[in-house]
Specification:
The protein is built from four helices and nine strands, in the order E-E-E-E-E-E-H-E-E-E-H-H-H. Helices cover about 20% and strands about 40% of the residues. The protein starts with 13 loop residues before the first strand and ends in an 8-residue tail after the last helix. The protein is α+β, with helices and mostly antiparallel strands and about 190 residues long. Strand 2 and strand 3 form a beta hairpin. It has a six-stranded antiparallel barrel. A three-stranded antiparallel beta sheet has the order 7-8-9, with no helix packed on it.
């Protein structure tokens, strides 16, 4: 892992050596990115100008391609310049997030309090996580092995008879399989 500021870290920090431009209050500063996470960037500003905690900043980086808005959450003088921690204010909404672990993405979306759909595609495999106010409320997969009934059957939470009965009722009623299994008494609501 990369060296980081003194603040408490919530996400994995990924090493990064890239130049970037910071625009703070209409002034542009050259800086070098040191590391990044799903919600932040650590950079060293070449200028000796004073940058204050709480300042809002526009960040432009060519590699990886990133334009984001942020807030300076800490500063520290170093022999190389002024190290600053920038908390991103605009969590990515579209595009590739391959640089981040899935756990970091899910934590970041939860903390953002946003509503939307995280769509993950790998070849023919597609999975979606539906998020409301930062909470995961539903998921979808195009893989049969990811279906709730299949998982419960494989883990021994229900037997084949329970599974077959719930699938039959699912087709007749249109209710969700989890709801049917609870109504039949095969699962408890908290499960």
């Amino acid at each position: 892992m990369c060296a980081a500021g003194k603040d408490k870290r919530y996400f994995t920090r990924y090493c990064l050596k890239s130049s970037l431009k910071l625009n703070i209050n209409g002034r542009t500063f050259n800086a070098g990115a040191v590391n990044y996470s799903f919600d932040g960037i650590e950079a060293v500003v070449e200028s000796t100008q004073h940058i204050t905690k709480g300042a809002f900043v526009n960040v432009h980086m060519d590699n990886p391609d990133l334009d984001t808005k942020g807030e300076v959450v800490w500063t520290q003088k170093t022999p190389q310049g002024l190290a600053i921690g920038i908390k991103r204010l605009d969590i990515p909404r579209r595009g590739s997030m391959e640089r981040y672990s899935l756990a970091d993405i899910l934590i970041g979306l939860q903390r953002s309090g946003k509503t939307g759909v995280l769509k993950v595609i790998n070849g023919a495999v597609m999975k979606k996580v539906y998020i409301k106010d930062g909470d995961m409320v539903f998921s979808f997969s195009n893989q049969d092995s990811d279906r709730l009934g299949e998982i419960l059957l494989k883990e021994g939470k229900i037997n084949r008879e329970h599974y077959d009965q719930s699938v039959s009722l699912l087709k007749k009623t249109g209710k969700k399989q989890g709801t049917i299994l609870v109504e039949l008494g095969y699962l408890k609501p908290q499960e």
